[in-house]
Amino acid sequence: MTGEKRRSYDPVALRARILDVAAAAFQSRGYNSTSTHDIMRDAAVTGGALHHHFPTKKSLGLAVIRERVAPAVEETWIEPVRQARTALDGILRAFDDIVLLIDERGEVLGCPLNNLAIELSLADPEFKEAVVQIFGRWQEAIAGKLRGEKADAAPISAPDELATFVVASYSGAIAMAKAQQNSDPLRICARQLASVLRPIRKERGPSRTPRRMS
């Protein structure tokens, strides 16, 4: 019996469960409004198990940012942009997929990166640095894609600034969508970004039309 219990204990899976529960709680309730007792209850773990993997709430928060929020941004934004034929295709794909998810779910929880950035960036320099690093990778993915494209046979000017504009536009749109609890701001933002970015596609033909943006 003792051997069966020992074999059934999976510290990697337990740590992952705690991270998943904490990420969901921080997204829905906020970091400051979520207690370690909430995490213990929702993850069905003891205080000893929680503190073995995450000695402090801050260490748990940083792990959520680095191991849950960063991969989410990678999946929903960075990879679609990198894999797309053009920056515009990737940007519209990201908007399209997020709008589809919101419409299917029927509620807007907001961007987990934005939510934590607003709540934690002023609270602690480590939180700020963790958030800034993710924004940096996100912007660089878009800027890098833009650097490989041309407008009127010339390199696109200020790709880094344009990437910042895209990320800031999405961040504002998702905040408005959360306030309104509908995806309309994202649809509008996608259309306007397309009108701004479409000139870079002049030599490549018309840009794709997102499935769910209009």
What helical percentage do the residues reach? over 70%
| Number of extended strands | 2
CATH structural class of the largest domain = Mainly Alpha
**CATH homologous superfamily of the largest domain - what is it?**
Tetracycline Repressor, domain 2
SSE order, one letter for each helix or strand:
HHHHHHHHEEHH
- Number of H/I helices: 10
Global mean pLDDT? 88
Largest sheet: 2 strands, antiparallel
At the fold tier of CATH, the topology name of the largest domain is Tetracycline Repressor, domain 2
Taking pLDDT < 50 over at least 5 consecutive residues as the criterion, the unreliable ranges are: 1-7, 202-214
SSE topology:
Blueprint lengths: L1 H7 L2 H18 L7 H8 L3 H7 L3 H27 L3 H19 L6 H9 L4 H23 L2 E2 L2 E2 L3 H22 L3 H14 L17
Antiparallel strand pairs: 1-2
